[in-house]
């Protein structure tokens, strides 16, 4: 059996705190999927604090994906639609160039994904590139 290898990738994380699972006090796997990174951002407004947190996991890409919406023309990320998760959750799939593996980026936005929080998530996903 051929080994599956996740290619190197890069993202512009300038507005995000990025931690390993160990640094965040989390296990290396979530529901059997390897946890690669934990992300967090905070928007400080005049009279509010708005946060978003996320995780990057890896998994096998199935033949049948739920409906997705591409982020932009050459963007790797696609938003998962019709996912049975909480309304404060956003999920994106980022398929590897060979189509066998994918990263899943899942964000929780307790105060909603409008405004600056949503913009930060969108910019992060649009900045994703496979380094192949």
How many H/I helical runs?
A: 1
Strand content: 35-45%
Note poorly predicted spans. Answer: none
Strand count: 10
The dominant shape is globular
Q: Measured on Cα atoms, how large is the radius of gyration?
A: 15 Å
Number of domains: 1
What is the typical, i.e. mean, pLDDT? 89
Tell me the structural class: mainly beta
Amount of helix: under 10%
Largest sheet: 8 strands, antiparallel
Q: State the end-to-end distance.
A: 23 Å
Order of helices and strands: EEEEEEEEEHE
Q: Please, could you describe this protein's structure?
A:
The protein is mainly beta and 132 residues long. The chain has one domain (9-130). 9% of the residues lie in helices and 42% in strands. The radius of gyration is 15 Å and the shape is globular. The mean pLDDT is 89.
List the helices and strands and how they pair.
Blueprint lengths: L8 E2 L6 E3 L9 E2 L2 E12 L4 E12 L7 E3 L6 E4 L8 E7 L5 E8 L6 H12 L2 E2 L2
Antiparallel strand pairs: 1-10, 2-4, 3-4, 4-5, 5-9, 6-7, 7-8, 8-9
Features:
132 residues, mainly beta, 8-stranded antiparallel β-sheet, two-stranded antiparallel ribbon, 9% helix, 42% strand, globular
Question: How would you summarize this macromolecular structure in one to three sentences?
Answer:
The chain is mainly beta.
């Amino acid at each position: 059996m051929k080994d599956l290898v996740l290619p190197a990738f890069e993202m512009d994380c300038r507005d995000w705190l990025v931690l390993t699972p160990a640094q965040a006090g989390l296990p290396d796997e979530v529901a059997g999927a390897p946890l690669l990174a934990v992300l967090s951002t905070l928007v400080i407004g005049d009279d509010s604090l708005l946060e978003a947190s996320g995780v990057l996991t890896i998994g096998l890409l199935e033949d049948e994906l739920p409906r997705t919406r591409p982020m932009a023309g050459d963007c790797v990320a696609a938003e998962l639609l019709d996912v049975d998760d909480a309304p404060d959750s956003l999920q994106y799939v980022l398929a590897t160039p060979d189509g066998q593996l994918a990263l899943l980026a899942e964000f929780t936005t307790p105060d909603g994904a409008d405004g600056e929080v949503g913009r930060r998530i969108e910019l992060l996903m649009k900045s994703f590139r496979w380094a192949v």
